[in-house]
Amino acid sequence: MAPVSVEMVPGGPHFTILPPMACAMSEDREVKLVEPCLKVSKVNLTSWSIGGGQAFIFNNQWHKIVVDNSDTLKPMAVFQIWSFWVRRESQKPELGFAPIKVGDVPD
Q1: Which domain of life is it from (predicted)?
Q2: Of 60, 65, 70, 100, which one has the fewest beta carbons inside 10 Å?
């Protein structure tokens, strides 16, 4: 696994990276996400161009994942997002991610 730096900002009842109108979406990719409760879900990983940089977001199931993991995925929680590959014989490797809680933002 390799850590990926992602900034997650609370946005109402769910987490968002940036408002959709702030950047242009460029591509989607279906990936596996190991939720904090250890359930494996399929989500879309979307890449957005922002100024001279790039941001990545999970979407299409994110709100349900936050509701199902409301004890862990809450505003002001700090996470590392780890990436990994799932390799199977005679199939293409699948990209996966796991959010790992590392703390909370102090008041």
Answers
A1: Eukaryota
A2: 70
Name the residue among 16, 21, 68, 13 with its Cα closest to residue 40: 68
Tell me: the pLDDT tens digits for 47-83?
A: 888 888 888 888 888 889 999 999 998 888 899 999 9
Which two structure tokens, joined as six digits, stand for 44? 């879309």
Would the pTM of this model clear 0.85, i.e. be above it? no
Instruction: Quickly state the pLDDT bin for 38 (edges 50, 70, 90).
Output: very high
Give the list of residues 6+ apart from residue 99 with CB closer than 8 angstroms, or none.
33, 35, 36, 73, 79, 80, 81, 82
